[in-house]
Amino acid sequence: MDEDYPRTLLEFDDRFRTEDACWTYVVRVRWPQGFRCPRCGHPAAWSLPRSRLFECRGCDAMVSVTAGTVFHRSHLPLRVWFRAIWLITNQKSGVSAVGLQRALGLGSYETAWTCLHKLRRAMVRPGREPLSGEVEVDETFVGGVEPGGGKRHVGPKALVAIAAEVSGTGIGRIRMRRIPDASAQSLEDFVQEAVAPGAVVITDGWTAYPSLERRGYVHRPRVVRTSGQTASTLLPRVHRVAALLKRWLLGSHQGRISRDHLGDYLDEFTFRFNRRLSRHRGKLFYRLLQQAVAIDPVPYRRLVVGRLSHGHT
Q: What is the pTM of this model?
């Protein structure tokens, strides 16, 4: 399937006026090369339009295009999901569950919250390329540094590792992850997950980083104490990303983010940042829909862990 997506809101509304139109589009996005049975891999099926199912010609399985996707067993019409994806990807600052509930006329806050968090889980593309070239790496606290605890003492705050590609004087792609502490194990695991082997990793002088050389990276530490420069000058890209992240969390979500779900918000920020230069917001709609049909469904019980004990959007 070519990258076929609506460019404007008017085009979106005209194209996806009916449930059938949304269903047909999901079929094309999930199986761009044609139907493929998830059970036996057979490439042919009979379409059953009334039930919106496919009957595999190889094993006779009844296959739903939404089975095994973000939309799996959802009671929301695809039209509502499509509108939610459009709203999320077309508002640069994001949207809260309350805002989504109002915009879509959803019956409950819980429905809007669940929809948002399922889509946030879809913002991590399976098999995405790791960062490469020169990459700055550092950590930051979300919620501020614990008083008296020092720069890397976590306490009740959340510690987030950030990696940012060097792109000339600017910033390329980024990766983020909440980490339990600033130990060598936590930081090295993050770097291995986010950065391709052989890349140049630029850090501060924290003692947890020198073992990166043994993991196949070229390590270039920049020690603040001996340089006479500030950390934000030595590692400008990760500090810029950290500042933008905190501003976004405060502006879009009033800082009401639980530690249990911080990872979902980091994924959303990363998705938005890495696609900030897209000419058409409709392409973001298309990309998120692609990813929504490529990941496994997340049961509500897994999403809701921690929500009742932490207020957040």
A: 0.84
